[in-house]
Amino acid sequence: MAMHFLFDGPDDSAATILLAHGAGAPMDSASMTAAAAALARTGFRVARFEFAYMAARRVGVRKPPPRADTLIPEYRAAVAALGAKAPLIIGGKSMGGRVASMVADGLFAERAIAGLLCLGYPFHPPGKPGQLRTAHLADLETPTLICQGTRDEFGTRDEVAGYALSPRIEILWLEDGDHDLKPRKTVSGFSTADHLATMAAAVSDWARRLGAAPWGRK
Questions:
Q1: DSSP string, 146-200
Q2: Which SS3 state, helix, strand or coil, does residue 20 take?
Q3: How far apart are CA 105 and CA 20, in angstroms?
Q4: C-alpha angle 125/128/132, rounded to 5°?
Q5: What is the pLDDT of residues 131-173, one digit of tens each?
Q6: Collapsing DSSP states into helix, strand and coil, what is residue 16?
Q7: What class, spelled out in words, does domain 5-210 have in CATH?
Q8: What are the extents of the domains in the chain?
Q9: What is the number of alpha carbons within 13 Å of residue 105 lying toward its C-beta?
Q10: Model pTM?
Q11: Residue 40: CB atoms within 10 Å
């Protein structure tokens, strides 16, 4: 199956972000579309793609999400098919970000990517805080930014505070955000648009520090 991408942002941007979807929603879900648009507004070229099991659903073949580690070859294939010039940041929503985190160090060592961006990292399954998905994050060498809602059921701020994470990982906490970074406005005083704008601004600043900002040298 040929790799299909959705693009947002300027074609001539000096920085590209490649994003994979979460386990249960496609690359054009409302959450991913809004996040991609917010990043594009800061000047990034954003590319989204789907793993084969999700793409198959579009033609009526219903497949469950496979184990995250089995998707590693597909993520590497997406990087190759995209053919973006450096700097490239890889990442994704939930499971997509998790898979990206599994391939990041290999690509970073090859100088194929500049960093890793995770939007709502699934630190553990909902309701199962003992089933951590963090072992490989302790020694991660790739510069990483995780954008996480403080009440994300896949890893709250209080839970994550106790994890052993690489010093290369920075976390942006979005007040009262859920797994889609959405806050309850009546509780937090923030809207989803507010949090997405904060996320995009933080990614832009982080990329600038990596030398991978969208307004950098072309």
A1: EEEETT-TT--HHHHTTS---TTEEEEEETT--TTS---HHHHS--HHHHHHHHH
A2: strand
A3: 17
A4: 65
A5: 999 999 999 999 999 999 999 999 999 999 999 999 999 999 9
A6: strand
A7: alpha beta
A8: 5-210
A9: 11
A10: 0.95
A11: 19
